[in-house]
Amino acid sequence: MDLTRDEVQTAAQRLVAAFAATDTEAYFDAFAEDATFVFHTEPARLESRGEYRALWESWTAEGWAIESCISTNVRIQLAGPSAIFTHDVHTVAGTPGAAEETRERETIVFARTADGSVLAVHEHLSPAPAASANEAE
């Protein structure tokens, strides 16, 4: 069954809200177990939700958390039972007293699972070029 724009928007909003709240359970529930992740801050692709979650939990064990996360410039491209969600992300995160501000572009691929739910199956994060970062303000 093809995805609808509303389903993708709802899934993306839920994922971004969980990230912004540093809500580990809700955030990782938004991803398929075999989801892959490409982050410009990591030396290699993360090959599963479990691999990314282990990395995330190593950060949060040190007190790392999201202070704010703003999603702008959203685009949803429907592709049958999958969809591509792109947006600009302005995030403030870090450990207490050492938060960093980042401006990035993110692509998340969503797909309908066998049980009918909509989950992220791939995430790609890259730094936003200076011009793009300035437009997000």
From TrEMBL:
Annotated SnoaL-like domain residues: 8-128
Pfam families: SnoaL_3
Transmembrane annotation, as ranges: none
Matches recorded under InterPro entries: NTF2-like_dom_sf (IPR032710), SnoaL-like (IPR037401)
SUPFAM superfamilies assigned: NTF2-like
Name this protein carries in UniProt: Nuclear transport factor 2 family protein
Organism: Arthrobacter gallicola
